[in-house]
Amino acid sequence: MSKSSSPLKIAIAGLGVVGSEVARQLINRGQQLSVAAGRSLDVVAVSARSSASDRGFVMDGIDWHDDAITLADRDDVDVIIEMIGGSEGVALDLTRASLRRGKHVITANKAMIAHHGAELAGLAEDNQVSLLFEAAVAGGIPAVKTLREGLAGNNISRIAGILNGTCNYILTTMEQTGEGFADVLADAQRLGYAEAEPSFDVDGIDAAHKLTILAAIAFGQKPDFGAAFIQGIRDVSAVDFTFANQLGFRIKLVGVAEPGQAPRMQTCLLPLDSQLAKVNGVLNAVEFHGEPIGSVLAVGPGAGGGATSSAVLADLMDIAHARGSLPFGQPVAQLVDTADQVGTAVADTPFYVRLMVVDEPGVLAGVTNILQRYAISVESLIQQGRAPGDTVALVMTTHETAEPILTQALDEMAGLTSVKAKPVAMPILSADLEG
Q: 210, 222, 420, 422: which is the annotated catalytic residue?
């Protein structure tokens, strides 16, 4: 694509927090942004559920569309900015239609890209337009650009990241205050960090969408959300932070992607002195490991109008300057199927295990007997205090163990009469996670 000095005509679909902020930036800072883009950036049309809301920008000269799909039919639109969200429905239909009609698409829709990225990238290639989604991963951190452009010459060996600010806020607050998950979640909802229906965040789905996208770019595979292993943060208790700290660890929801392995999004224990363990609150962080670079860490705001609109504007600048790039760094025909590339086996790892047991004689013998039969070696065992007849926490860390074996052992432990709750297990990521 050659650079043009003609105005770039833009339509925005979806005027929620991010869509409205993008529109405000383009309209209220239009002259400054146009200078940076080397051409005028003109918002000519928008679409949203309601035209009645005051979104902080003047609609003069901007056409309103009740049906977002009709934006793709406009001859005067060069770029569609899709801010509707959702892996299916209107967002997907609009993106398909826009690419087929030769329009560039910018989206923050991580679910859509994780589920349909290969198909949409193929449409972009076929119609010689850009499909850009910097805003879909880690908000204001240029994670996609770093991987697809800045580190393009590297052989990437691992990506690790904290990719959901809601979960990071909840875990950080639980550790700092000693409050339980339900109370901190309610606080996060009150502050606007968590949705009223928080499953996508706290069950790790949102973060796994982002990890799926990064893994696809890093390892030359088609994005396949179904291949990811996902475990959220609901099972974490306030007592786990006390034990983790005593053992020299911090609890985080961490995504790890490596060649030949299914991407994994899990609640993990990290060494207190590791870089990711120091990323608190609503911040996101992504670590890239490769040859020859070694290790690169990027930290920043992962969500919100400001951070996400910043990523959208960066993609818009690339289109304005004709800096087109393949969505996943190489032609879709060269991307391999994730299922053919990743294995089912996962490297053995140490684990943190918590059992809630009745404090009575024989409990440890029953647990130890199961561990011995499954050949699981224990590195440390902690039980603080005595409470005869009451339920107490029994915590252990294991040596390197195969997760399926540990799962079988814990299922058997759950059947012991002395075990009063589902056992909780979290992998312990070693200090060399950062290379």
A: 210
